[in-house]
Design a protein that fits this description.
137 residues; mainly beta; three-stranded parallel β-sheet; 1 helix; 11 strands; 5% helix; 47% strand; elongated
């Protein structure tokens, strides 16, 4: 994941001389290998918009942090962040977490819950109506 944060620093000395300068911090935690990774969000009571995220090869979005969070996403967001060979995204959450599809008409919700090997619990599967090779669990 890539993140940029900019801010201005103002300082003065006891003689009254002042100066200011802009600082930009750039952090890139994008994996260098082809392994899929997990994207975690720890901010409590937060709304997360995937269109604001710059990441790739994401296999799992983890919202499990005992806080209510809302994840806004669309088919384009999913295509931008998932591994292009797999096209599957697992979203882990706890009570109070919600998923809001910006393009809800493009998704079909499975009737039955799905068990995923290596994952605890069961998942509701959503499959894209425009690209059935893309699913969210």
């Amino acid at each position: 994941m890539k993140c940029n944060k900019s801010f201005e620093v103002n300082s003065s000395d006891e003689d009254g001389d002042t100066t200011s300068f802009d600082v930009t911090i750039k952090v890139d935690t994008t994996p260098n290998d082809s392994a899929a990774s997990t994207l975690s969000f720890d901010e409590p009571n937060d709304t997360i918009d995937l269109s604001d995220i710059t990441a790739s090869n994401i296999k799992v979005i983890d919202l499990e942090n005992d806080s209510s969070q809302t994840l806004n996403l669309s088919l384009d967001d999913i295509k931008d962040i998932v591994d292009s060979d797999d096209n599957e995204l697992i979203i882990r959450g706890d009570n109070g977490d919600e998923i809001e599809f910006n393009d809800s008409e493009n998704w079909n919700k499975a009737i039955d819950k799905t068990q995923i090997e290596g994952e605890d619990g069961t998942f509701t599967e959503y499959t894209s109506t425009t690209n059935p090779n893309i699913s969210i669990l």
